[in-house]
Amino acid sequence: MTTKMLFGNFKGGVGKTTNSVMVAYELAKKGYKTLVCDLDPQANSTQLLRRTYGLQNGIELPIENTMMVALQENTIKNSLVEIMENLYLLPSHKDFVNYPDFLELKFLPNEPDYKKKRISFFQDQLSKIEDDFDYIIFDVPPTLSIYTDTALYSSDYVIIVLQTQQRSLDGAEAFWEYLQTFYNTYKDVDFDIAGILPVLLKNNVGLDNQIIDDAKKIFGEETLFNVIIKHMERLKRYDRQGISEQQMTAQNDFHDIKVHHIYSDLTDEIIERTHKN
């Protein structure tokens, strides 16, 4: 059975895309067939996975159909691209900025339940292929938008990414409150909050610990993941060059091993929290 997850926060720059893609990568390495749906017109996860494909294969990732074109033609399968064994991508592109306009024209305000029809359209298309995957991960913009609502409507679990700064904590609170409102508004949605994922702004700094303590008081200590993502410079290289491992390039060293070890542990905890043992 497919498990669909969204990494979210209403504050940008907290590491949603990085953590979404890294978890997807580790799920694939563990043998789970995984799909990343890039529901952000900025296409950050698409770019990261394109660079990863290029790093591993030495050629540019071929993308024949953008997700926007596939959705317009009701042929979402035609947009799927394989990044590596068990890891697939529904790629975003700058044309995905037109998705809200497409929905407004397709489902007019005079139609019954037009708002629900708009946010459920993507799930209707995704249902044609979702049974082919063990996990589907959504990457969305850090804003209240049709993109976020679309992903929430499709999700089974939500992971709130919390960078250890006050604005991120404020964004996490706002996102938590919106999840409750969304859940109460649409009676057929059925997602759970898998947890709050702490991402350290800096390592061993008092503010990091203070924000984490505040989050435990606000959300409950059991809600926070046991695995904490520490500040790691290697992740910046991944954003620029693609995800690497010790067997892939001559540039790898213990930093790659450390990054993958941490994300492997996080992925194991996510598997446990989403009952996919």
From TrEMBL:
InterPro entries: AAA_dom, DNA_Partitioning_ATPase, P-loop_NTPase. It holds the Pfam family AAA_31. It comes from the Bacteria. Keywords: Plasmid. Residues 6-187 form the AAA domain. The keyword Repressor does not apply. Gene3D superfamilies: P-loop containing nucleotide triphosphate hydrolases (3.40.50.300). SUPFAM superfamilies: P-loop containing nucleoside triphosphate hydrolases. This is Replication-associated protein RepB. The gene is repB1.
